[in-house]
Structures are given as C-alpha cells and as structure tokens.
UniProtKB/TrEMBL annotation, chains A, B:
NAD(+) binds at Y121, Q183, N206. This is Histidinol dehydrogenase. HAMAP family: HisD. The active site is at E319, H320. One of its GO terms (cellular component) is cytosol. The keyword Translocase does not apply. NCBIfam families: hisD. Its EC number is 1.1.1.23. Its cofactor is Zn(2+). GO terms for molecular function: histidinol dehydrogenase activity; NAD binding; zinc ion binding. Zn(2+) binds at Q251, H254, D353, H398. The keyword Cytoplasm does not apply.
Length: 408, 408
C-alpha cells in the first residue's frame, strides 16, 4: 500500500458509473415496454433476464411461512435482535409536527406527514441481502408509511432466498413481488395492472437498476445512487496494525472500485499497516478484487499531527470512518464530514452494517459533505401551516403590501 | 374558468422545462469556459450577457452602506420585521445532535453538522427579490453554515438594486458577487481565482440558471428546480367568491404556466367564482398572462362533499393551498400533500410569501407528495456515531458474524 505525505488536495472521488450508451438505451426501452404493456412486459422481461417463468409475481403467504423451515433458529434470533436495534435507533429520529401561536391570533406551524407509499428494491442474484431489507424498510415504517412494497428478482426456480422472505416476514412486509431489474423500477414508478405505483423508490441495485432509478426520478422520488464503498481509518501510534489492515481489506474485498484509506500521525504505524496488508492479502478468497482496490484506491497518508490528520478526513468526507486513537470519542466533534463514525477498537464496520442500529445506507464519493445516512426524514415531508387572524392581517397588511410591491 | 365535476384522475402536472438542445449546449460551454479560464471567463460572460463591464465582482462595504440612502425607512422596518419572523420560524426547525447509551457501554448517536458553505443565487433583471434572499439565507444561517455566498447579476450600470443590497446587509451577508446566469453557478460549483467553490447552491433563476444547477449537481448539492407556481383553493359555500377570484388571479398573473384551481363543494360558489374571475381579469395590467394561465391551467372542480374535495386536493398535491371553509383548521389534519397550507380568510398567499415566517420556496408540480419547503435540514447533514464497548462486542460478535455470513 502506498505511503504518502499529506498534500494540499486529497480526494477519493471516483467517476460515478452512468453506464454505457447501450445500457442507457436498454433501460429506456424496458421502461417504455412496462409503461405500454404492464404485467405482460414484466412477465416477458423476467423470463428474459432472470430466467424465471412467473405467472403471479406476488409472494404468497405460503411462501413466506414456508421459508422459516429453511432458516436456522439462532439466525432468526439474530435477525430479530438486529431489527429491534435498528428500529430503536430510527425511532429516535422521529419528529413531531408543531404549531406556534401568537397573542394576535397568528398560528404558524410545520406538519410532518409520512409518504403514502414506498417501494424498496432488494438485489438478488448470487447473494441475499436481509440487511438491505431492514435498513430500507424500518425507517419507512417508523416514519409511518402505510404502503411498503418490496421487489426482488427471483432465481431461475422462481423463488426468493429464505433469508429474504423471513426478514420481510419478520418486518411484516406483505406486498412483495418477485421482479427485479429496470422492469421492477418501472413497475414501481408507473404501475401495472397488478402493481400500484409508489411515491418513492429506495434500495441498491446493479447498473440497470441505478439507471432506471435515475430515469424515473421526478415521476417519483428516489434515494441516493450509491457509489463504490469507502473506509477511512484515522489512527495514532497506539492503534493495532493488524486490525487496521483487516478492516481496510474487508472493504477492499467488496469491489475493485472500493476505497480503503489510512490516515495516521505515525510513520511507524503506516509502515506496519502496509506490511500487514500485504501479509493478509495473500490468503484472501477474493484476493484479486482486494488487490486491485488497494492498488487503485488505497493509500496511507502520514500527517504531521492530529490536526492535519483530521483535516484530511474532512476533505475525504468518507462513507465509513473508524477512529482508532487514544481518546477517539473526543475527536468526534472535529469530524465535519462522514457518513458513519465508528469510534474505538470494538466498533468495526460490520457492527454498523448489520446489527447496531444506525443505517448502513450512507453517502459515498465525498457526498457526506452534504448528504446523510438514510433516515426517517427521507420517508416524510413537511408542510408549512400559516393561519393569520383578522387582527394580525390588519396590523401587518400594509407591510406585506409594501414588501410585495418591492418585487413587482 | 372551466367548471368540471371531479374525475378519477385529477392532476396539475406540467412538463418540466428542460430547455432546448441549444440552451443546454450553451450552458455546458459556459461551465467549461469558467472551469478553464476562471475570473477571465466570468468577466467576459458578464459583459456579454449582463452588459456590465466589471473588474471586481465583489460588492464593497461602500456599496452596501450606500444602498441605505435609497431605501425608504418604513420599508427597511418592514424588511427587519420579516427577517425576525422568518428567523423565528426557522429557529424552531433546528435539531440537536443526540447520543444514546446502553448499560453494556454501547454509545449510538446522530451528529447534526451544518454544511461548510452555501451559495445563494438571487435573480436580477427587471425586478428585485429581497424575499428570495431572506428565504434562502436565513435557513442556512440558522443551520449554522459558516460561509454564505450570494451571487446576483448586476444591471448594465454594474449595480445591484438597493433593496437587494440592504436585505443582504441586514442579514449580515458579506460575500456578495455581482455575477449571474450559468457562469455564476459554474463559479460557485468549481471556484475561480477570486471565488471559492461552495458545497451547495440554492435559489431560483431563469432556464440557464436551472440548467446550470442541474449540470453541476453531484459536484455540489442543489435545492429543488422549481416549476411554475400553483395555488389550489379549497372552499365551501360560505367562502367569498371575490376573494377567491382575486387569489386565483394573483397566482395566474405570475406566469402563463402558473396554475390556479378551485376545489369546492358548492356549485353556486363555483359559478360565482367563474364570473368573478372574468370580471377581475379585465382591468389587470398583466391580463394576457393571467388569461393564458387560467385558460390552460385553471379549473374549478365541484366535489360531491368535503371528503371528495379533500381527496382532490391530496391528488393535486399543490404548492400553495388555501382553505376557506367553515372550520378550516379542522381540515389541516386531512391534508396529506401540500407545500404550504394557508388557513382561513385572513391568510392569503402574500402573507406567507413575504412576511409570516415559513419559507416561500415550496415543492411544485405534485412533488409535495414527497418534498418539503426549503428548511434548516436542507443546510445540515447527519453522521451516525457507533461506539461499541469490549463487552458489547463480546456479547454480540457471533450474531454479527452470522448475519454477515448470510450475505457473503
């Protein structure tokens, strides 16, 4: 891993994948086909892309209940505990509508209203993503969204993984369709005979899903389009190089475009971590991916002091930040830009990715400068309330007219 | 004005103006020129488009102070009162960071951090928009944004209107540049020798400004791109047809694409308002604009009862909603989608546009289904905090591993 001194302009930004011309055209065509032919288009496209011949996309009660037999009880318990933790954290984000009154009879306020309906995209394919279901569904439920629809592509056998069905079931999600790709996004945005359109679509997906979300944005709201994952570790000389190397590599393993960065005040630690990364890389099953990620987007910055190190972190504005310094909590107040801050040696990223409670859908690619983790606010909106009394209007009418004339 | 019964699918959506190919190419070229040549490009483009030959764009202290001589004292007082009202309302939106602790040593939390820097675009040209300055700058200040930059195109004389300078001065905005158009947006997004880049750009503008904001989105954050203005009046038989017609027309006057809609339970009121609109249209200075707006985007819906009427309002999801019924406040809880709700006969739209306190930057074109008025949250972002203790990790480590393996 490269060890470099801090330069004026550090950045881990990568180009956002906007797909190829061919991909964009394919997505446009799919959306148009779904708008024109509804369910029939969904059936054809699901057969074409997922290899599944499905007459009724909707998951039945029997499928949901049957999935429990395939799941280990201890895993179900772990899922339940994660759900409790995530729900508890998001409950604390909930906000109340408020009104304020004045003696002249004026009432002003802010009404918080949940969205009517939300569609959650859950990726399928080689792996199953129960955590993605929890992280998208729970904030919507806490916000009070009445209709939550889940879509996820089935395997060629027409089935969803048991872990996906059980997680949905534990969350009491009842409207689930076995569809995926751009066609699922189109169905959620425009509706078909059997699927009613929603107001917002969230959740991760491949490039076709991302392009479809971009294309329907405006018709419906969408969450962010996530870039490759990032970790920045901020550490001083007392941190453990082996742990740091392991955390950097577990991010690098995800994706060749993932970024793993160490910012440290210790030249010695920098050198130890560089060696550890080499050592730990060798036996990894996903060695090739991790190697490419470390080579292209991995770097160790050695800063003169903690002030400079923190400045580097704020410039990077990472998705995940781990603080491994002597008094890590004391530094949190100086971190201006980060999606999630993992404090101290017992808080590695998986703690937050699957279990602790905060959301794992985080701003990437430097957008933590102005974006937030997915949260309850994303599933509500505000309306202003303005009620003037006769007296308030009489007192203030001439001022309001004067200000209005200023802009005529 | 057309009087129609309620049909299944009511909507006031209009096509969003995405500009012509020529306009989009012009904007791309301007942005590139500013990125390549910085201040020199800004000078050339300002001369070309605004007709102003400006060496130093930055407004001086002398200009700010000098503007007061041109402003009526009572108008300054009205501005100050509006600023107090707007600041008071937005202070109530402010949120605190929070932490929660568990007995096993776990600390979880949500840190709220203001954005570092924001650029506010203030349109110039024929009119001055002090209210736009207040509505964009105040929420950013309340959020705690340290650097607030204002840009506004000067007249051919190289000057900004006195009302703009005085409003900025009253708000203590000190970094103001006399630049406008796509070149100002490019300067804010990418920076030049004399203007440092910002993290977010807000504020309304013409089609070139809107296209430039779209083009730089991703590099920086932007607020919404506003569509034409809308008003929906919800009224029963006791409402005053003259007032309603006046409010509908004052919206229609803004823009040929503006939309003015009455939803009423009273056929009689519907007919009265239709007549009143005709009568009041005739003498209007902007008659042609108002007439086109009413013709193309004006309609009176007659609903069977209040339930159906409210359903229509929620389907329309209007930017501005006026409720003129017998017990208007009692209906607020049934309004799910509206940017701002004006309650009762003394709360017409200008009350909220200029003075009362709530923000006048509101979601248009049906986006009130999922968007909010501009508010303090728009100028902050959240970071999650996760701190596990040794004990917490020991207790939960195996569950976290099991959940992680589920997704491998």
């Amino acid at each position: 891993m490269r060890i470099v001194p801090v330069t004026a302009d550090v950045s881990i930004k990568r180009d956002i994948d906007t797909g190829t011309e061919t991909q964009r055209e394919a997505v446009e065509a799919i959306i148009q086909q779904v708008r024109d032919q509804g369910d029939q288009a969904i059936r054809e496209l699901t057969k074409k892309f997922d290899g599944a011949d499905i007459e009724n996309f909707r998951v039945t009660k029997q499928e949901l209940e049957g999935a429990y037999a395939e799941m280990d009880q201890s895993l179900i318990e772990a899922l339940r505990e994660a759900i409790t933790n995530i729900r508890d954290f998001h409950e604390r984000q909930k906000r109340q509508s408020w009104l304020t009154t004045k003696e002249d009879g004026t009432i002003l306020g802010q009404k918080i209203t949940p969205l009517d309906s939300v569609g959650v995209y859950v990726p399928g394919g080689k792996a199953a993503y129960p955590s993605s279901i929890m992280m998208n569904v729970i904030p919507a439920q806490v916000a009070g969204v009445e209709r939550i629809v889940m879509v996820s592509p089935a395997g060629a056998d027409g089935k969803l993984p048991a872990s996906v069905l059980v997680t949905a079931s534990e969350l009491n999600v009842k409207e689930i369709y076995k569809i995926g790709g751009a066609q699922a996004v189109a169905a959620l945005a425009y509706g078909t005979e059997s699927i009613q359109a929603v107001d917002k679509i969230t959740g991760p997906g491949n490039i076709y899903v991302a392009l479809a979300k971009r294309a329907v944005f405006g018709k419906v709201d969408i969450d962010m389009i996530a870039g490759p994952s990032e970790i920045v570790v901020l550490a001083d000389e007392q941190a453990d190089a082996r742990f740091i190397a392991a955390d950097l590599l577990s991010q690098a393993e995800h994706d060749e475009q993932a970024s793993a960065v160490l910012v440290t005040t210790s030249q010695k630690l920098a050198e130890q971590v560089a060696v550890e990364v080499e050592t730990q890389l060798a036996p990894l099953p996903k060695k090739a991916i991790a190697e490419a990620s470390i080579r292209d987007y991995g770097v160790i910055y050695v800063a003169r002091d903690l002030v400079e190190a923190i400045d580097v972190v704020n410039q990077l504005a990472p998705e995940h930040l781990e603080i491994l310094t002597e008094e890590p909590m004391n530094l949190v107040g100086r971190i201006r830009h980060a999606g999630a801050i993992f404090v101290g040696p017992y808080s590695s990223e998986p703690v937050g990715d699957y279990f602790a409670g905060p959301n794992h859908v985080l701003p990437t690619n430097g957008t933590a400068r102005f974006s937030s983790p997915l949260n309850v606010d994303d599933f509500t909106k505000k309306s202003s309330i303005i009620s003037y009394s006769k007296q308030a209007l009489q007192t203030n009418g001439h001022k309001i007219s004067a200000l209005a004339r200023l802009e005529a």
